[in-house]
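Encode chain A's predicted structure.
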Amino acid sequence: MNLPNKLTILRIILIPVFVVFLLISIPYGDYFAAAIFILAALTDSLDGYLARRWKQVTRLGILLDPLADKLLITAALISLVELGRISGWIAIVIVGREFAVSGLRAIKAGDGVVIPASIFGKLKTATQVIAVLLVILENTYRSITTLPIGQWAMYIAVVITIISGVEYFYRFRKELG
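Encoded structure for chain A:
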């Protein structure tokens, strides 16, 4: 197994560790959760970069990488809903878009067509990661500002998620003919 695939598997293994630190009430739990989340998010960028650079793109990596990304964001969103830090509709919109786009990509993959991530897809991922981090750490910067920065970031992530989803559907429609 190559290093990029090992990094993807590490990201999947980090997900339950991240959730435990986020959900249990211990001193500095949010910091530990944020650090684990950052590490997992960084492996997302690194594994793809290494796989392409070293020409080690594998079927396993093609399957596991997007799955690991979706599992990480979904686990974070569900945990934040459980903690009452975000509204459930936010998680539903983001996770629903992931299911819809994954379904479209699977349909096209069955036809031998790969719909690569667009700039909106990459922007979506970045805004979701930043928003999750800001919501996790929101209590730590309350002494600096009472502005709901994490919530605002999450709303921006939702808007970009919707735009990205619409863009995928448009590209899918164009592929049909």
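The two ends are 39 Å apart (CA to CA).
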